[in-house]
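Lecture notes, part 5. Sequence design as translation. It can be helpful to think of inverse folding as translation between two languages: the language of shapes and the language of residues. The source text, in structure tokens, appears below.
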């Protein structure tokens, strides 16, 4: 690490124009980033983390912001540092992507839907590095291998919508690394990734930093990632820097009350050891209605037997079916009334497809789905519509699942109107109760989705899912994109509702610490199959399948003195789930290792 900073933020103030006059997104923030150093900026959504990074790239102007005051000094290696805040926007083109790389939080909006992955990856290399077409394509292939994307040659020809969320995020990371920038700005780069890929991406960024001296400005709300990556930590709250210091000092002796509250909200793997049932987290400044464990019942609500879902792959001149994607392959499990079963695994393993197949948002190929005595697969469209009142879904991205043109009160009341559950006054009264239940003020009822933060939008999605008093809620990565403090509140809300209303959850997640906190039972998925399933304590404290062990080993720990090294991560390449037409996989056989704890013994590729 050198003595002169690579980038300096001096008294930065960024303002946004609103109907009520200018609002400061960042107020008087100053800090330095040195070559070869990782600076983590933490804080909840709306604290000004992303605005600071977008200011350095001069992208904040495209989002309605204005740098009102301050200097943004960047050392380009040719004499005195240049103030990027004063640079004309067209001169920034040579810096963006080439000298400062950026990994954006939302991969679908960061990629152009009309160009192939290969075209987008090679564009920067040809523009900034002057590479020819073949050399750029070869470098793009190497980058995709680096970020561990299976079948990279095929991926170059695909469009962003053909990839899963985790894969798209890896493509965005590969694009940012393409030109080997001096400074890499990573804005929540691992939020949408599962633990195994997150661990490898973090190790990749760490290796890049060591080999090339690249500095990393890492924006995140995941304190375990901060402990794994950071040299220095900057804590932001409501647009201001409230604390700065070496990573050990921030974790072991936080000074500011906000930093202390942030660390208290982090679910830690191992916290639930010895506790048979889930229980809400104790948060600073928040009183719980009850912190009693939630035993649930042993009465089955949902029985899934031999569920299989495959998607056809079309090819050739006539677009005939040439293969199948084996997304979900012969899975069986039971969810009890008032209990939570979590499905964990990495992106592309079939977790979300399993959840959607149970609700018949995706039509399964075979298998039986029994919800409280009703065979869901045997229902005709009218009966299925009625059955949907008992099973609801909370999606991963609340912005995409809410209608941007409808007020929130109409979105929450829409299911009740669709199913004619009462008079207009009854519906309005229930809406008010639901807003109270998810701890949102009733004044929000007349707002639109864009006027809320991510955590508030997710609460609206939960309120809408609760509108019809469902028996089962499928929660698909419902808290993965939320800040730790908001995530802890949403999880507590879901557990309180479970204790009060006896709701069952099928909880789909890749966050092992969250899964440990909320689950009664856990199923681990790999390549469309469940490889291990059992009571939460059995799976977490005595993992038997090699993939489950690898998954546990990859979980970052919120302790900077206990970091994972790249040697700890011995993952095998993920085989392709695509098989030719007519291929029949081996039957699924389980061994019961302890009562209720089953491990896959048939050939599974891991």
């Amino acid at each position: 690490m050198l003595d002169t900073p690579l980038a300096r933020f001096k008294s930065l103030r960024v303002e946004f124009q609103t109907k009520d006059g200018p609002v400061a997104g960042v107020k008087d923030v100053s800090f330095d980033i040195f070559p070869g150093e990782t600076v983590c900026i933490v804080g909840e959504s709306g604290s000004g983390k992303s605005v600071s990074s977008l200011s350095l790239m001069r992208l904040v102007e495209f989002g309605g912001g204005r740098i009102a005051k301050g200097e943004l000094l960047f050392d380009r290696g040719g004499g005195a540092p240049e103030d990027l805040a004063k640079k004309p926007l067209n001169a920034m083109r040579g810096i963006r992507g080439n000298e400062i790389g950026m990994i954006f939080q939302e991969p679908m909006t960061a990629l152009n839907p009309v160009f192939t992955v290969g075209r987008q990856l090679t564009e920067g290399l040809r523009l900034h590095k002057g590479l020819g077409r073949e050399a750029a394509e070869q470098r793009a292939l190497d980058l995709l291998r680096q970020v561990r994307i299976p079948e990279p040659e095929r991926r170059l020809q695909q469009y962003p919508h053909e990839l899963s969320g985790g894969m798209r995020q890896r493509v965005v990371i590969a694009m940012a690394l393409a030109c080997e920038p001096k400074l890499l700005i990573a804005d929540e780069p691992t939020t949408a990734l599962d633990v195994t890929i997150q661990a490898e991406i973090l190790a990749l960024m760490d290796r890049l930093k060591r080999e090339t001296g690249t500095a990393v400005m890492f924006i995140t709300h995941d304190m375990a990632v901060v402990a794994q990556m950071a040299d220095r930590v900057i804590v932001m709250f409501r647009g201001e820097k409230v604390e700065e210091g070496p990573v050990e000092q921030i974790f072991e002796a936080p000074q500011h009350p906000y930093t202390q509250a942030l660390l208290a909200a982090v679910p830690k793997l191992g916290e639930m050891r010895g506790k048979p049932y889930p229980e809400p987290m104790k948060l600073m400044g928040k009183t719980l209605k009850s912190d009693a464990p939630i035993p649930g019942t042993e009465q089955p609500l949902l029985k899934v037997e031999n569920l299989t879902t495959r998607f056809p792959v079309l090819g050739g001149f006539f677009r005939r079916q040439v293969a199948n994607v084996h997304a979900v392959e012969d899975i069986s499990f039971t969810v009890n009334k008032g209990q939570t079963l979590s499905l964990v695994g990495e992106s592309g393993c079939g977790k979300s497809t399993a959840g959607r197949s149970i609700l018949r948002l995706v039509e399964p190929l075979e298998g039986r789905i029994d919800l409280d005595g009703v065979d869901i697969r045997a229902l005709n469209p009218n009966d299925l519509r009625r059955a949907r009142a008992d099973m609801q879904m909370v999606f991963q991205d609340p912005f995409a699942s809410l209608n941007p043109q409808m007020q929130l009160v109409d979105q929450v009341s829409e299911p009740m109107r669709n199913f004619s559950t009462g008079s207009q006054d009854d519906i309005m009264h229930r809406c008010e109760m639901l807003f109270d239940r998810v701890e949102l003020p009733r004044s929000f009822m007349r707002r639109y989705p864009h006027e809320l933060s991510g955590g508030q939008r997710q609460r609206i999605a939960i309120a809408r899912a609760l509108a019809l008093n469902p028996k089962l809620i499928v929660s698909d990565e419902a808290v993965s994109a939320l800040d730790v403090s908001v995530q802890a509140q949403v999880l507590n809300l879901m557990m309180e509702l479970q204790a009060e209303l006896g709701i069952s959850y099928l909880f789909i997640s890749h966050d092992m610490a969250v899964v440990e906190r909320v689950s009664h039972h856990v199923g681990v998925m790999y390549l469309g199959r469940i490889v291990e399933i059992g009571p939460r304590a059995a799976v977490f404290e005595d993992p038997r399948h090699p993939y489950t062990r690898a998954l546990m080993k990859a979980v970052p720990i919120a302790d900077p003195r206990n970091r994972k090294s790249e040697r700890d991560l011995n993952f095998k390449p993920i085989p392709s789930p695509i098989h030719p037409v007519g291929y029949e996989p081996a039957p699924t056989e389980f061994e019961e290792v302890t009562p209720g704890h089953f491990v896959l013994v048939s050939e599974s590729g891991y």
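The translated text above is only one of many valid answers, since several sequences can fold into similar shapes. The two ends are 40 Å apart (CA to CA).
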